[in-house]
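## Example pair
The file below holds two records. Each record gives the amino-acid sequence first, followed by its structure token line.
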Amino acid sequence: MTELLAPAGNIEALDAAIGEGADAVYMGLKSFNARLRSSNFAWNQFEAAVQSVHRLGKKIYVTVNTVCEENETERLYRFLSYLNKIGPDGIIVQDFGVIRMCQEFFPDLELHASTQMNVESAAAANLLCKQGVKRVVVARELGLEEIRAIKSKTNAEIEMFVHGALCVSESGLCLFSSYLGGKSANRGVCTQACRRIYSAEIPGTVANGYYFSPCDLELISHVPELMEAGVDSFKIEGRMKSAEYVGAVTAAYRYVMDHWHEDKKGSIAEGKRILSTDFARSKTDYWYGFKSVEEGVDSAGEKILNPKQAGGTGIFLGKINQTRPASASEKEQYASSLERKQEFSIQMATISGGDYNSDPGDSIRLHKKDDTGRESHKIRVLSEDEKGSRWIDIPSGFSKGDSVYLLQTKSMSKRYKRVLPSDLSKFRKQPGPERLPVLDLTPLAKNELNWFPEGLYIQVSTVADAHIVSSLHPVRLIIELNSETSYDLLNKDSPAKPLLPYSKKMLVISLDPFFAEGKSEEFENVVSVLVEKGYSTFIVNNIAHINILKKYKVKLIAGPYLYTFNRWAVSFLENSNIMALQSPAENSEKNLEAIFENSAERSRVLVSVFSYPVLFRMRFKLPGDYDFTYFSDKEGMGFKVNSTPDGSFVMPEYPFSLLDKMETLKSKGWTHQLIDFSKTKILKSDIRNLVSIIQKHEFIEGASRFNWKNGFYNPEKMEAYQAAQARNAQASKDNKKRK
């Protein structure tokens, strides 16, 4: 029987999910989860939730679905030890290091591979299954036939999203938010760059639009087929959504799942009626209804993108006309309406320009006029002044001219039986002071990596570019396997007339990080022929690649999308006989040095010193009316987009560059360096300029260091810093009073 899995971003959402018939809930705690901006659960609340949910015969899963840096591994170890004692029914993970740590110390914790782990094939599911993972949450960019095929070929349980917000980028592969300031989607602090308004350079003009803001997923019409396909769990997205939203969506899917056998058409109609109260973004079934993968690539973009929807959220209520501080009585009224004591910061505002007057109990969403922020809010206070103006409470930080949208009306509000007990005093467990045992990386045997020489590596996306970069004299040329190069390598290359000016020993084939089931048979055929032709070294960017290539006598380099942000993740790959790797694009120098402490360990690592990192990777071509290559945000930062038969790719206009640091890096032991021209057209003049820059150790004007210098944004450190600032300010005030 298919499980219905609902989000519990807070206590009220937990009550709604259980009250409307969810079989299981998933939630995050205060760290190591991919929704750090949601309320999340305190230690005692979580412990109580596990006990209470189990007493009701339901299940509870915990998100541990972010990547972990080396200096966080001991805290991660303590967190996993705590979870092991509390006993949730599973933990949802992204980092290979979490899997490796659980294998070593916590084998009783049931592991579920997060959608952030980028699983979209049976080959990937089967490798994880052999590593002890019981369930995989498959990528959202898959169709019904692909889901059926995966389920038929694996023993792993299959969980899939059926409703809620979509990422425009392929799951786990988005770097955009991280590139803008270290707020990584892989760390739970995504700033939703896809929802922003951009200015596009369209021929003859400049047009503004929400070009990459996708509609929301709704698969309620496909519930019967997916249940027949054997999907083990239907997942509702929304740990940052209101309890009303969670309750309504859970109720709708519960109804269809329980009644479609007796009345398929009628049950789906009733489910849609229940969902009609959701005024959020327009809905799509995304990758469903296509006859082939190729048709999906051509047309899926048109199904999920609409540049004209203002962030894609809700019914327009108008704009903020006036604001004022909330009075003492209004603050008291607001506080008394909350179901539990919590901090809040509100102001009062009037709204004008729409056709609906919002009331207490309605859920709204506010958008700043400069598109720098959005926030959902439940109205709790209504005041009318002597002029008849209606004042409602809104969050602090919004002002005149900001837009307001209706998400849900008061009529949807419903009270649910509390799941947690009123007294939490007996729930006192917290992570302890355990020390993480030291992990040593496996020493290299003599000549083990003689095929991975020191020196300069160059990566390109076309055969033509491979010829142009030959003047840089790389020790290895990396060529991306895509639709164009695949055809060239299979059909134009021959022993009599080699296609490239390099021996096959010098060539490395880089594989695409998105590996969908619908293309798996074609991929296996291509790889088989390439190996037969003598290509023997591959960069693997998806765990499916490891599973498929293990039967061949080839050398493997773990690519930047097999995230290795800690030694435990490196150890996981070592257990798959992968000893060489490329550092992830988001990594910092400090973290890289912490993972690989000496020159012997650093000799295994390929470090990028130049690239145009792909910020969005989309499985589809952009709609036909996206007649632009360059676009920019409100701060004037420029980007470019490339739409191809292999999907669409967004990159920064200016490169990431450490070219001026190459000699310093070598002196620190980073002797394998990569200049990456992927997805970029190269001119001979570009190569001449690059050589000059390298020789003069120059910094490229406009180039980015990405996270190399400052690392990931750390919300916990920022909170600690702000708290310290507040304490210092208060101490200063107190000192002045005493004087």
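Second record, same layout:
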Amino acid sequence: MSTRQFAHELYTGLLVLPGVRAVLGARLSPADEVLVTRWADGSGLSSGPRGLAADATELPSDPGEYPLPLAELTRRSPGMAARVAAVGGDGLLVTVFGVAEGGRGLIGLATAADESDAAELGTALTQVVELVVAADHRISEQRALEDHQALDALLAEASLRMDASLDIADTLRAVLRMVVPALADGAAIHIRRDEQMVQIAAAHVDARRERLLAEHLRGGRWAGEPVVTGTARAGDGPCPAGLPVEVGLDTMTMGVLRARGRDVGLLTFFHRGRSDRRVSTRFLHDLAGRAALAIDNATLYEQRRHDVTSLQQHLLPAVLPTVPGLEFAAGYNAADHTLEVGGDFYGVVDQPDGTVVALVGDVCGRGAAATAVTGLARHTLETVLAEGGPAPHALDILNRKMLRERISRFLTIATATLTQGERGELLVETQSAGHPPPLVVRRDGSVEESGCRGRLVGVLPRLDLRPGVGTLLPGELLVLFSDGLIEARDADGGFYGDTELNLTLTRSRDLPLPAMVDALLAGSDRYHVNDDVAVLVVRNLGVTTLDRELPSDEVPGAVTDALRQLGHPAALPDHLLQFTAPCAITAKVSGDATWARIELTNPNGGTAWTELTA
């Protein structure tokens, strides 16, 4: 039965008692404030009639039974006396009794009865009060259960949100939006950073005042400022908020966020003076505990990720060598599903005779063991290569060392040995020890796979290397990569290497090499590169006939002369001659008689480039 149905049955039942002309019902707060009023007479039952609450405040409020004849009622509450007289009553029998949550209930019978009916009415009132008190406590218990379930559901949702993301700032902002306005009129989160509590989120039930709240919290102009600065501790109970009147929040409840024995933040709920939004201490402590653990986990994750990133960077060359006629660019994608260091690596070795060896490797697995093998492989290969040893010899030495030391992990490596030809071309010999063969991107955009093959390093005594031999003309590129690139998948499960990798190479071949590497690692914005990937790209620039800074008005002539030295017949494109103002330009021209690349860099760092073919 609903509350409305219960009230109708109750008041209708009282109206049929002998001598009863009307029934008054009211509920009072612990501060004697009238919260609910009802009046029933021959015309029906009404809730909250105008003026009834004011009339009821003048009646007795202490528990007990009060017979109030019309004359006494007139002195105490003229308005109530007028209501009783209007229904033909000559008095009001009032009973005040305690209800749930410290409040009180009031039932009054407007009567026109003789003394013989008084005993029956008193008995009826006693029974009604018992029934009302029992129903009120049942409703209060049900409401408390529902509130408890709602709070548990909110805590569960908050926990799910905090567990689902390591972007703790955004997550906690979302949690505050769940709490305000459901449980509080305002809220704020501070996180400890560099031994200070830094505000990262604030919410206000009045969106227009949210900015004011955030500004005052940042300025420390509130009662919680000593806690933020570390000069005091938060208490368990409500206290004055200490905020300006215009913020509209009077009291606050604060909780320190503690995780693993450390204070990691501060959670504060704010309330308006007469607001019915309140949060229990239990809920505050539960939410604070979960938020603290989420913050601490995110902090530990960020620290671990920083450590892994730093270690990964130490396993890769800080800079690639500068070699006349060659352009290098490399990139690394770390797997996003783990916090362990990957085993992919790359490098470029400039040998004493001018030969250049580029390499990309991939150690099986991740973590400390893979890191150790990566360090061993890089050190061994680069040491042998730097002394002028050929790539197959370096790979053989590494293979024998791994077998001798009984290293349980294996690795794959691809190398490319680049030797300058007489006319700007590069003689290329590639090796693959169980690794994806390097790709060659020709001037016309076609992509070819070098024909090298071989066994994994660290498994068998013989690598059985079969080299690939070719030529790289000026303007052509050599691309080395680890298998995480070709194994990137799209939403349908298709492999990047089977479908669009060659197309991406063709489309991006004219870009500056760093931009080309970024395009590869982006997976054409369709394929998710979800593994460790190392990429190394080499472009043959041919012969460089110009590479210096010039006044902008001298650039056209210098570039034209440089093209002439290459034997290139093309004229300088008009769009490269358009300078908005006189300035210094770094001009670079490379190539041969059939292909040339022109790069012009202005003082602000902007670069324009073009490629010319005969």
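Notes on the second record: The chain has a mean pLDDT of 83. Residues 12 and 311 are 81 Å apart (CA to CA).
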